[in-house]
Amino acid sequence: MPEKKIKIAVDGYSSCGKSTLAKQLAKQLGYIYIDSGAMYRAVTLYALNNNIIGKDFFNIDELIKNLDKIKIHFEKDRLGNTITFLNGKNVESTIRKIRVSSFVSQVSAIAEVRKQMVVLQRQLSENYGVVMDGRDIGTVVFPEAELKFFVTADVDVRTQRRYDELKEKNPDLNFDEVKKNLIQRDKLDKSRKESPLKQADDAILIDNTNLSREEQLNIALELALKKINGS
Hints:
- By secondary structure, the chain is of the alpha/beta class.
- The chain has one domain: Rossmann fold (3-Layer(aba) Sandwich).
- It contains ten helices and ten strands.
- The strands form three sheets. Strands 2-8-1-9-10 form a five-stranded parallel sheet. Strands 5-6-7 form a three-stranded antiparallel sheet, with helices on one face.
- Helix 2 crosses helix 6.
């Protein structure tokens, strides 16, 4: 493994494959992987479970008051996969459900929530080579990151990927519902006042609409090794 340790930021749209890329890249480099999106999903799950947010209401003040009660950490399973824990409970599967996806952009738009998560993200990455994915990693969390990627793909391709991911556990899932959710999340993520989704000026764009996971990884890995080796 390369001795030099750098920070790598992977930003992009929902269901564009950025988490897959970040996980694969971290594994290849022997780096720590941090799923920032899972952190916002965990906060959203807390809000849903505690009747703070729902279809027709969102008690923002109540969520802010409860932030100190929300404890998030990550562990590895026996296969090396990253598992998200909320207040000591494994919520990795629950936070991926459409129920959470429908509200996570609203929760992540709250300035106090983002500030709390950024502090935690920076703490988790201290003294390590790290790959972190999200929507504001290269612009806000790690603006000093030595390497930044911005990942995108055609919306119909992203919808199909998300649909395939969720269909097995949600047999009644509707393709159009998934697409509507993605488009809504894109709009909210790009237009929010606090840390909107955007490509950092020095980020490398990867459009993986027509790329396999292996092709995407090879592109990113080659660039990462060049950066690490100073070439």
